[in-house]
Amino acid sequence: MQITTINGIKVHYSVEGPENGFPVVFSNSLGTDFRVWDALLPHLPEGLRFIRYDKRGHGLSEAPDAPYFMGDLVKDAAALMDFLGVTDALFIRLSIGGMIAQGLAAERPDLVRAMVLSDTAAKIGNEQIWAERVAAVRKGGIAALTEPTLQRWFSKGFHADRQDELAGWRHMLSRTPSEGYIGCSQAIAETDLYDSTSRLTLPTLAIVGSEDGSTPPDVVRETADLIAGCQFHVIRKAGHLPCVEQPRQMAALIAAFIKENGLG
């Protein structure tokens, strides 16, 4: 277990792979910890240095009292990379993690050489949607949102055929600290990255599950279109977490992107 203090909070992280490997930094979605990437890693090219962490309020990282701001989450990512001495990395980011990546690429371009944005957008939802979710968690805890969230996260086929795995994801979500979920929800609600993302020019790959109920393909494509030269791919038979449902397909897209852009 690797834990360090970043911006006044304890942050849980993992570093795997050779010290001289090309750095690949992952960030997970709302309501998950960094195990969300477990199924993807074995299918990615060899020789990479994988850096994963639990953002504030999630997994084994501390959950300070809400509210959080996107600037907090971006500063956490930057501070962890500075602590590890990592620059010029490939960022693979999911959902809110993709928002963090966009913010970091705009504010600290020295840290981000290229991005893979999975099931994310420059703006996700609206203030009313997030206010309703925050109110529901304050009243009834994460349990109040668990089943609707799982419906958005996974495809119909996953719900029908992979019940044992679904139970594990239900447990992960339900164990997310309420303050962490609320704080990150508030950060998403107040974030609009259209202007800063439209000025990005770094190599970018945008991926989305065809059955994503949180950030549907049209929403992700809209953000991909903001970034000059951004590639866009839809992964069939996947919801909001294609790294879980279709890791081989997602890894193949990332491997091709790495090769095309001379990364690794």
What does this structure look like?
The protein has 264 residues and is an alpha/beta fold. The chain has a single domain, classed as Alpha/Beta hydrolase fold, catalytic domain (Rossmann fold), CATH 3.40.50. It is built from eleven helices and eight strands. The protein has helices spanning 70-84, 96-107, 127-140, 146-153, 156-161, 163-174, 178-189, 194-198, 217-224, 242-245, 247-260; strands at 2-6, 9-16, 22-27, 48-53, 89-94, 112-118, 204-209, 231-235. It has an eight-stranded mixed sheet, with helices on both faces. Strand 7, helix 9 and strand 8 (231-235) form a beta-alpha-beta unit. Helix 1 crosses helix 2 (96-107) and helix 3 (127-140) packs antiparallel against helix 7.
Summarize the structure in short.
The chain is an alpha/beta fold.
Helix content: 40-55%
* Corresponding CATH superfamily: Alpha/Beta hydrolase fold, catalytic domain
Order of H and E elements: EEEEHEHEHHHHHHEHEHH
Strand order of the largest sheet: 1-2-4-3-5-6-7-8
Number of domains: 1
Beta-sheet strand percentage?
A: 15-25%
Which assembly state applies to the chains in this document? single chain
- Examine the secondary-structure arrangement and name the CATH architecture: 3-Layer(aba) Sandwich
CATH topology: Rossmann fold
Taking all residues together, what is the mean pLDDT?
A: 97
Low-confidence stretches: none
The best one-word shape is globular
The CATH class: Alpha Beta
Largest sheet: 8 strands, mixed
Query: For the CA atoms, what is the radius of gyration?
Result: 17 Å
- SS element count, helices: 11
Termini Cα gap: 26 Å
Number of strands: 8
**What structural category do the secondary elements indicate?**
alpha/beta
